[in-house]
Every structure is written in C-alpha cells, then in structure tokens.
Design goal:
Number of helices of chain A: 19
Largest sheet of chain B: 22 strands, antiparallel, barrel
Shape of chain B: globular
Largest interface: A-B, 105 and 102 residues
Number of helices of chain B: 16
Helix content of chain A: 25-40%
Order of helices and strands of chain A: HHHEHHHHHHHEHEHEEHEEEHHHHHH
Number of strands of chain A: 8
Distance between the termini of chain A: 88 Å
Oligomer: heterodimer
CATH topology of the largest domain in chain A: Serine Threonine Protein Phosphatase 5, Tetratricopeptide repeat
Distance between the termini of chain B: 38 Å
Strand order of the largest sheet of chain A: 1-3
Amino acid sequence: MKALRYFSILIVIHLTSCSDLDPASLVEAPPHLITSETLYKDMAGFEAGLNGLYSLLRDERTGGNDFMLANMMVGTDNMVTNYTYLGFEHIAQDWGNINNPNHLQYLRQFTFLYKVINTANTIINRAENAQINWTGGGSSPEQNKNRVVAEARAIRAWAYRHLTYGWGDVPISTEESSSTTIRTDWERTPVAQVRNLMLEDWEFAEQHIASEPSQSGRITKGAVQTFLSELYLTLNNPERALFWANKAIEDPAYSLITSRYGTKQGEPGVPFMDMFTEGNENRHQGNKEALWVWNYALNVPGGSYHNLNFFHNGRYFAMQINGVTPFQLTVERGGRGVARMSMTKWALELYEPQDDRGSDFAIRKYFVFKDAQQNAPFPADILPPGYSYGDTILLDQTNDITPGTTLRVDWPYSRKAEAGSNPSDLAGGNRYNDFVYLRLAETYLLKAEAQLLMGDRAGAAQTLNIVRKRSNASEITADDVTLDFILDERSRELVLEEDRRWTLLRTGKWLERTRKYNKNGGQLVAEKDQLFPIPQAVIDANLTQTMPQNPGY
Amino acid sequence: MELSLTKVACFPQRWSTARKHALIRSAMRITFAYMVLVWSSIQVMTANPGISQELQQMTVTISAHQESLKTVLKRIEEKTGLSFVMPMNEVETYTDVSLPKMKRDLKSTLDLILSNTHLGYRQINKRSILIYVKERVDANKVLLDVSFKGERPISLELPPVKGKVVDEKGEGLPGVNILIKGTQQGTISDENGYFQLNVQEGATLIFSFVGYITQELPVTNSTNLQVVLKSDSKALEEVIVVGYGTQKKSDLTGTVASVPQERFEMIPNVNIAQAIQGAVPGVMVQTTSAGAEPNQAIMIRGRNSIKADNSPLIIVDGVPYRGNIMDINPNDVKSIEILKDASSAAIYGSRGANGVILVTTKQGVKGSLKVSYDVKLATQSHTNLPKVMNGEEFYQFKEQRRSGLITQTEREVYDSGEWVDWYKLSTRKGYSQHHELSISGATDRLKYYLSGGLLDVQGISINDNYKRLSGRANFEMELTKWMTLGTRTQVSSINKSGIAPNFEWVYYSNPLVRPYDDNGNLSVFPWPGNQDISNPLESILWENLDKSFQIISNNYLSIDFPFVKGLNYKLNTGIRSSFSQMYIYRGRNSTSGFTQNGSMETNRGGSNNLVVENVLSYQRAFDKHSVFGTIVYGFEKNESGDNRLTARGFPHDFLGIYSASQAQLIQPSYSYQYSHLISQMLRLNYAYDSRYLITLTGRRDGFSGFGANTKWGIFPSVALGWNIANEDFFPAKGLFTELKIRASLGLNGNQAVGPYQTISRLASRDMVYNRSQVAGYIPSVLGQEDLGWETSKTYNLGVDYGILNDRVTGSLNLFQTNTFELLLDRAISPVHGLSSITQNIGKTQNQGIELSVDSRNITSNNFTWFSSINFSLLKNKIVDLYGDGLDDIVNGWFIGQPILVNYDFEVDGIWQQDEAEEAAKWGSKPGYVKIKDLNKDDKLTAGDDRKIIGQRDPRFLWGFTNTLSYKNFNLNFFIHGVHGSTRTSGLMTDEETWAEIRRNTIVKDWWTDENPSNKWVRNEIGAERMAGIKSTWYEKADFVRLKDITLSYDLSRPLIERLKLDRLRIYISGRNIFTATNWTGLDPELNSQLATPLQKEFLLGLNITF
C-alpha cells in the first residue's frame, strides 16, 4: 500500500510535466515583442511607424559633445571651432590627417542616416502589401496610403540629401533590410543617380503631403518644395528650382513673419527673433513662416532633446573679471553652453547697424550684472571688485578666433541658441524646445539664387529685399546681386539654421569662403576635404567588393 | 618498508604463511589476536565504525544448515551486492553455521552468524564490510605480535611499547599495520586502535593503513604512544561526481578535476569562484571587478566563442544553476568537480562546450549530531592605487598645459592648501564577518545537514556593502528500503543597499574643488563655475534599497528497483525562484537629484526556473565486467521578468519614491523572457577488470530560442581509458601505483544566445507632437531564422599517474577544441541601417596542455609538507569567420590569431630632440608621441599601419599550493600566476583631462626638455597624437600573486577531549598579500582600471565542532 501511495505521487508529478516534454513547447510566442509583421497591418500601425521615423531623425541634432551633424555647420565661413572636443569641431580646426576615415564621427553619421533610410524603406515596402487596412481618419484609404508613403519617401530623400552632400557617391538602399539580404558587395552609386531617387521621392511626396503637417512636428508640402528647389539648384536646373520655390512661396499657408507675435510679444524684441522663442516655433502657435518644425518636450516620454544650442551657446559662466567668475547660469542667458562652434568674426560683422538680425536681440553681445531679483530664481551674479549691478560687460569680437586664441568665453553668439534649457538643470546640455528646421525665408533665398542663375538679377534683388525688409536691412538693387551676396545674405538670415557646408559645397564656394573667413582651420582646408571620407568600417564591412575611398584619404 | 596499495592487494596469497607463523606463536603467547585489512571495494568513502543506516535498512533473507561461514558470507555478498573483506584462514576455521530461514536486516544477520566466533565486523565504506578477528582479552593488556614472515622471532626481552592509533577525529583505527623499520616484524592495531609491540628503544615504527598517510615514529621511552594517522584523500579511491551519478576515479575516462578541499576552508572566499581560482589547471578565474561583491569570470580551457558567453555551466546538486554564484554559500559546499573534456561534459549537451562545474553541497553523515561553528573576521585594504595628481601637481599640470585656465575657485582652494584627496574621501578600512553554524548527522532513516550563515562585508569603498543571509536544509529520507526521498534546499537573502562613489570620477575629479559646503554637507556643485561636474560622492546621499531573495530547492526521489540489482530510477527536480527589488531616490541634496528636481528608479524582478529530469541508471559488476548505464529524459524552463519605474521632477524630497505619482515624468516599463529546453541523454560506461574502460555518451537537446529547423542538436562522445599499471606485463610497477591513459573525442554545444534571437523585431521609439507622447517603432534587430548551437569538437589525451607509492600523483592532458558554427554578431555594412546580425558562422580552435603534480614531499609524524602545482598553456585562434577566409577588421577578428587581440597603431616611443627634423615631417615635434609608419609610405593609414599588439587573454596560467604541517600547526599558501596577455590600462592618457583641464589624471613621467624620457609624452594637448592618430599604449598584464596564505592551529586532542569538543581550530589568513607585476594600471586582473581597487584582506578565523 505504501509503495502504491508513493508511486501515485510519482505519476502525478509526471503527468504535470508531460506537456513540458512535448516538442511543441519549444515554439516561441513572445507576448512582448513587436515585429514588422504585427505592426504594419493597418493605418494605426503605419502611423506608429512614421512616429518612429520622425523620432529617429531627430538624432541629427543630438549627441552631446559629439554632436551628430555638426559637420554641416562648423568648418565653414560663418562657423568656427572655438572649444575643441573630439567631435567634428576637432576636424574642423585641424583638418589634414585629423580628417580621416577612422574618425568615429563619420561612422556615427553614416550609420544614423542609413538607419533612417532603412526605417523609411520598411514603411515604403510594407505599404505595398495588399492586405493592409488603410481606413482611418477623414481621408480615403488611398489618400492615407499615399500620404504615409509620401512622408516616408520625403524623409528617405532627406537622408540621401545629407549623404550625397557629405560623401558624394553613396550606396543606394531602397529595400527593408532582412537577414536574407545581407550584402558584402555594396557599390557606391554615382551621385547623379542617387539624386534621381531623391527627385522621385520628393516629387511623389509633394503630391501627397499637405501644406499643413499631418501632425505638429511633421514635414509639409512647403518643406518638400523647398528641398526640391534646392535639389534642382544642385542639379544646375534653375528653372525647376524657381518653379518649386514659387510653389511654396505662393502657397497661402506660408508667409514670412513680419510682425511681433507669440509668448514674448509684449517684451522688447524684433519679429525675426520671435520664431526662436520657446512656445512660438510651431505653425499652430503662429509661426506661418515655418515649413518644418521639429518637436521635443521636457518630461514627456518620447520628448527627447537636442544639443545644437548647447553646442553653440557661450561660456559666459566661465568669464573671469578681476579674478571673479561673476555670471550665473540662467534661463534667460540660455543655460550652459560649450561654445564648441562659434560665429566667425566675419559672420558677426556682416550686418548693417539697423538689421534686426544683427541686433542685440539676435546676437548676444554683452551681459549685465544682475542681482538676485533680476536673476530669480537663480542666484545673483557675483560682483567683481569695482562693479555694481546694472553694469554691462561687453563681449569681445575684436580679434578673430585663431589657433592661438581659441577657448574664448567672451565671444558673442547667436541668441537663436538661447532657448530650450531645462530650468532645473541649466548645466545640462540638453534642450527641449521645438525648433524651426526649415522656414520660408530659405525658400526665398533659394528662389533668389535660381533667379540669379537664370540671369534675372532684378528679380533676385526683389526676392532678397522681401527677406531683408522684414529685418530692416536696406534694400538692394540688381547690381548688388552676386552669388557671394546671396551667400552672405543666407548667413545673415540663416546662421545656425542652414546646413552651411552643404550650401557652400552646392555653390562650389566652400573652399574659397572657408579659407577666407574662417581663421581657425579655414587656412588648412584642402581639396580633399570637400568630401568626407567613407567611414573605414563601411569599407571594411564590404568584404567581397572593394569600396573605393574618396580621393585624398 | 611501507605497504603499498598493490602489496596490500597481494595479502591473501601471502596470508597462509603469515597465518601459520602466527598460529604457532599464538600457542606460545598468553593470547593473541589480530586483525586484517584487505583492500577491495567498488567504492570507498571514509571508514565509518559500525554500520551505516543504509546497511541497517538492508534486509537479506537467508538460511543455512551446517554450512561454512565462508559460503554463508559469499551468499550474503550475492544477495546484497556488498563485499566482505576477510581474513580467509580465520573465516575458514568456521564450518558449522546454521541459521533458520528468515528475513532479517543485515546487522542482525551478521550478529547471528558471527555470534559464536572470535570474529567481529565493521563497515568500511558504503559497499564493503570488514571481518576482523576480535581480541579475546582486555584490549589494554592484549599484545598483538605478528611477524609476517617469521624468520626472526621477536625477542621476548624487549620492552613492550603500547599505544593507540587514531584517525584525525580521534577515533581508534583498527587494522593499522605497524612495522619495525628495517625488519619484517610488527603488529596490527586492534578493534579500538590499540597495539602493543616489543621493541627496542631507538627503533622506528612505521604505521601504515590504506587510505591514510604512512607515518614513521621513533620509539621513545614513552609506553603510551598516541599516533594520529591523517587520511590521504589522494590515495583513497576517490569517488568523483561526474554528473548524473558518481564514478570511481580509477574508472574515469574523461577529464575531471576536483578542487582541493583546502581551497574552501580558512580562506576569505565569498563565492565559489574564488575557491576555484588557480586550483585546477585549465580553468581561468579572473576577478573582473572588486568591492564588497566582487565579480569573477570563469573560463575553462580558453575562449571558444567569439561573441557568446564563455562561462561554464554550473550544476548545483545535479541541477543547472542560473543564479548568481554569490548566492551560494561556499561553506555549504562539500566538493567541486570540473568537467573539462568533451566526454565528461557531453552529458550536458548543448551547454557543455564551455565545461561544467559540478557543485555538491554537504550532507549529514552517520554518527551523533554534530554542531559546527565557523567565524571569519577580516579587514580589507586596497592592494594598489594609481597615483593621481594632488592639488599642487594638478595646479602645475594645468598651468603648464595651458596657462590662464585656472578658475577663480580652483585658485582659492589651491591657495588655501585644502585640496581634496578624493581617494581618501571615497575609501575606508573594509571589514567583513562571516558566521556559519551547521548541524549535521544521521539517524537510521534520515540524514540531515542544516546550516545558517551570515556574511557581512563593508567594502573598502564607502557605502559599498554586501550582506548575505543564507540557510540550507539538506535531508535525505528512506521512505522504504528501496525508496529514498531527498531535498537540498537553500534560501538566501542578499542586501546590497547603498551605492558606492563612482570610482571613475574618484580618479577624474579635480582636487581643487570643495567637496563640502559651508554647512559641512556634501556640495551639490563642488566646482561652482562648472555645474556640469557632479560631486563624485553624491551617491552616498541617495536613498537606495537593493535586496534580493532566492530559494533553490532540489528534490529527488530515488528508487532502487527491488528485483533488478543495480537498477535505479531517480526523479530529479530543481526549482529556483528569485525575487529582487531595488530603488534609488536621488534627492535635491545630490547633484543629479538637484538637476532633475528629484529622480528615482525602481525595479522589481523575479525569475522562476524549473528542471525535471528522469534518470534511469544501472550499475553492476559481473566478475571482471563492470557496467554503468544512464538514461536521462527531462526538461528545463525559465521565465523571468521585471517591472521598472523611473520618475523625475518631484514636488519635494520628503516622501522619496513614495511620491512617484506626483512626479512630472513617470515612465513604467516591463520586461519578459521565457525559454524552454528539452533533453535526452544516454551514457554507457564499461570497464573490464579495471584495466580497459570505455564511455559512450549522447545527448539530444531542443531549445526554444533556436530556429524552427534548428531546434534540436545531438552531441555524442566517446572516451577510452587504459589502466596500464594494472597490467601484468607493466614493467614499472614498483615505480607506478597508478598509470592510466585516457583518450576522448566528442561534440559539445554552446547555447550562446537567449530567446527570441531568431525574430526580426522593432524597438519602440516614441515621438512627441505638440508635447504629447505618441507611440513609435523602428526596426532594431535583424533576426536570423536558422540560428542553432555553437558546436565544439574536443580531442583529449590524458595520463593520470601515481608514482613512488603515490607520493607523487597527478595528471597530464593535451587537448584540442575546434568550435564551429560560431554564433557571431557579425558586423554588417552600416548601409543596412543596422550594424550587426547574429549568425552561425566562423570557427575557432583552442589547443592546450595541462599538467598537475601533487606531491607529498615530507611525511613524518610531526612534520608534513604537501605541495600541489598546476600549469596550463593555451593557444587560441580564429580559424575562419565568414567562410571567405577574410579578417573582420571592424571587430578586430583575424584569422589565425587569438580571438581577443589588440589591433592598433604601434607606439614607438617619443620623438626626441635629435629627431626634431623627422618629427616635423609628421607635423610633430620632440616630446610628442612617435607612432610607427609600418609600411613606410610616410602616411599613417588605418588600413596599412595597424598591427596586432598581443592578445588579451593570457596564454599561461599556474597555481602553486603548499601545505606544511608541524604538530598542530598548518601553513598553507597559494601562489597564482597569469602570463601572456597584453592590454591597455586606460589610465595612460592625458586627453581625459579635457581641453580646459577639468579632470585629473595619474602622475606620469612627462617628457620635458630637461627630462627627455621615453616613458610619457610632453604635457601638451595633442602630444599623444601623431598625424591625427591618437596613440594607445599597451602593456603586459602578467602577474604573479601570493593569493592566499593561511596559518592554522588545531587544539591538541587531550585538551579537546577535556573540553568535550570535536575540534577547535584557529587560523589567520591573508589574501592578495603580494603581487609581482609590471602593470602600471590599477590591477592587471580587473577589467576596468577606473574602478574600485582590488582589496587585500587579513582574516582571523575560528572553527569549533562538537
């Protein structure tokens, strides 16, 4: 009996474990993982895919001390390395051997841009599945599908824009990566062919994206038209460039900001700078000039952050006056900046005295000692001997930044970079305000360039004057219009906004103007520096076919 | 002359003569008796007096009618599987044994049949019973006198020497051979260990007993000798745990190494990995990080996998253990065996490729209840600290590097002279205490071992604490004669609350700042002008809870099939359940809490693991054939998950984490993981005449994490052994007591990847529109659908030897492991948008030699010296990567080279003054680094000017243990050597000080015009670069370390007995006392050189058993 009892226990144990010995229990059914198959089934899934894509592309402006796409801005005529770290600003100061394929900055950028492309490709490829339920919202299923694909294609072309300007011929990938399509024989597609793909993508996108973004933070028709205009300029087709610029300019949804608006309109200021004030950036907030505004948020999951302002903002807190470090970090001063790239002396001095864009509202030229009340909730500035509150300390731009005179804490900086710091973490590098990624003023400037190339200097002057008038700059005439003038105007208007390097490369002016105006690194730029080196890891991973390096590396 | 094993085995043949003489003598003497021991058994453990409860429970139905005793005993042997070791001539004198047929237990049976004889019995191990001749008079008066050959009768005039032979526990040892040195005369100790012998003063007595160390003792005028024989675990026929059973060491065909017992006791081990370090050849244990909870990485026979985990499978009491080894109390461990070759590890199939560590915990043994208390108290200090600059040095360094950068507050601190010694503020005298109380014993049907332990460590870094409470209950119950139920259950509770300062910042932090504010609190911003710099001590202000709890319960049911002798079924189950909870609240008094208005993290996680195995085994000997077969069928499943919450932006600090719901940003997250493994295993061992041995194994595993077509893997192996010393023709029998040649070949697997790796998937990447969160996803992992095991094919050729009467024993192994279908995170072109994919590609090879030598250098009564040394030499290389014979430069993998190499530009010293011209060609100057232009094309290019600068894993490891005993003192020291690795310390750079010299660095021998050294560059930004290439300096990370040294004293036996104790031992011990190395970093063993320093420990310990 006893034995029977024990055996029955044994049998019970065995019965409970039988299913665990069944090979069927080896099939995985993860409840917590999402795959392309499970996500891309309906409209909501594709919207989530687009959300991911928009979230990802914001990495262009992150990366702390190794700020991701600094190389679009610094090492140009209007932006110079001031404080060096190990990112691109280091290259932009020393060039020569420092600019080499092993610099990790290039690998990070390359990997990032192709990650954006693969994410976009996944959406574009998966949208072709006939089973998808495209219903949703107030649009027809077909409109929904086209709009989703259009946004993904617009952003894919955006990534190829960076790649082609930066590296020239680059591999084209238009398919979602999968384990069965791993390639070790990528080829560098001629840049003209890549631009063809961009053209197709943007022309498709232009048809299906509306003037107002499908969500705050997403791309608009006007932005796509502006990219098309720029691309046609690159392709030396000013007629089409003009066509697309006009499309955006003539769209009633878009207009230049010519009067004060928004959160600080009651305070002293200029209309031009209202767009860069926190809370004013988006179209629904009154910024009708905005074509594409990137959205961020503090203390919201998915809010992310950007670093451009941190990268450019000055190191006023480190200024020493009579042995004292007086200036406190405050929100008004833009929190802590690292001044890794600063405006060149030339860029600072490019303005007429009455030009709003060069005014004290646009460029930080001095600091005033503030007491606790004025600095509240932050501490009072510490007065150096001989000073009192209300006294002004001028920043000093008399001597340009040169190899021997870097690390300038008292150098003026663009106040476009003052917004977005976290009041409780002013020392932190992250900024949480939305920022205007593309605005109509740039479209005007592209239009002027197209007009000039077509020989219509008067038209170009007229176009430029629209932009200049807004900021009280004097009106110019047809005789004033040259390519260099337009580039100067772009700097006045778009410093710290445009991808300056791309503009200069597009117009063939990078070498000349960087040598001329950039005194810390400009003297060292060489022919080969016009294209970045293909990252060594990309060449090394191409095991079965040699990927040629750009010349000179 | 000493009695060797083989000679003992010859006793029966020689007995008749010896016996005849003895009988003659017996007539002449008042009385005599003698005892005999003949060694012969299947398994021997320790000699227990009486009879174990297993035997008491063993029943036998037997009848006899006027039969010879010998026949009856033989019959009992047949029925029970036991062996009797008996003095045949004595037994043969009894020819009239009668016994009514009845089922009796063995004890009664033996009592009955021996009741009218002068014979006694005693169990000497699990399966053997010794029959001996009982003395017939009062033991103290009895004389035993045997002359084996009897050529020279002992003179009666010689004075008698009386004494007692005892074992280490003080129990009398019967059957010990006592010979007068230089003669053939001697005696044998009686049932209680007493002996008497007539011998001349000045003569030397030799005491020998199988399984004990032979001892020589000069006869003094003492007439009451007390001789303690120490057991010799080496010479005993060791039984080795081999996984799913045990085997006689002499029958082993695989390569199995046991960790010597000395490595467990009297050493400040907090985990079992520390006990293994250096103790057996071929096993590398690296202390990867120090602190109150040190981490060890274990690697057996080198790195087979490039990407996958190289750590071995750990089996605790027969069940795979997936927890942290810190949770196993080393004091509860009875033995550790390491399965190294394919044959021994193949029984674990898909997880055996990195070797297997078998941990067996203690079990109660027959005898009265035994209570043991252990206490270890230790102090800790650091072994080595890299010297960072002090305030003065930092000031000078900064001024030199770039004048004018000193900030106002730095100057103030500098002028005040009160610069900070961050080391001093971050460290303390470490202290640890370890208490352990255990109760063990066995009754007729129950074996028990209960223990409770407390480990409390306060590390040398402030706020670095570790407290472990553990308890163990091991029970084994005999439910019926044929059914045994057992449990081995451990609970542990760990408290690691408190976060130590971030040591990276302890090294880097500027000495010219203020760690405390005016109120004496830690400053939120120690450097007012640089608010991005945290106070490195801030973590001590954080509220932190970090606790975990684990229960492991291994339960088994064993059934000896009543009708088939040797057939056993065992149901083996293991449950592991763990739970952990952690929270951190960073208040506004700390830098990070201040900048985030309070921030918190919480995490509650749990995991459950279930193993169920059916093990059917058959073990039996037929004449000269011995067979052992094992079949296993079972499964294992693992489920784990955790819930996390992070939040920041708190309204106030009063409630800490409890006001999470009021925070501005609250982010919960969940994780989950499940895996399932089904296994089948078959093993056959066959031995013929203890000479020819063969083992065949096969295991089939199915794992949920692998692709649909690759779910199952089969892992076969074969091993052969030849005990050549047992052959008649073996010529050197006098020299060799053991000589066994082994060869094995087999396949093992490395499961290598976790679940879900075959599934391509998306990661969440949320977005905000107008400050509201929306869900977003992007492709994140490319799954490879056909993922399977990594397979290792291992050849092993081994020799086990014992020479000079086992004075020197050991083994030599040669092996080669070829691993293929490696799971590689293959770097793919970034053009894919993802940079890697896991695939089964690539091949590696490890070749190695392992040698161990254990020797008993000196064995006299008062002084013994044993030493044990092991070496292993390892050659590791990548054979192929992607099937195309090409290197993977991105990952630094090179065919024909070791897996971990340094691939870099080569530093060629420093440009000196007379090289200014040449330096200028590179845009460099004297004092700057000189990097080799390997292809001499006047350019430094990554493609052509990088080379392999040494391997990162060591090539040569050794461990050397010495144990010296003098009377009751015992000194043990252990030296560990690691050679052949080259690494970069990470401390050898000035660039980490940043452009504005905001961080500290270690003091270096900077190049100056006056001191043009070749050791370190000039103090200038850019001096570490040539042509834009940053130089990395590599060093040999070889070291030889006096790892452990212990001096112990055992209270002498009379005193112990008076105190009614069983044992009292006190000891002092030291760890990491001395290190010889040229490494300039923190420690050559540690992974990070910017981490908590390795500690040196001094320990005082006490053990009382009663």
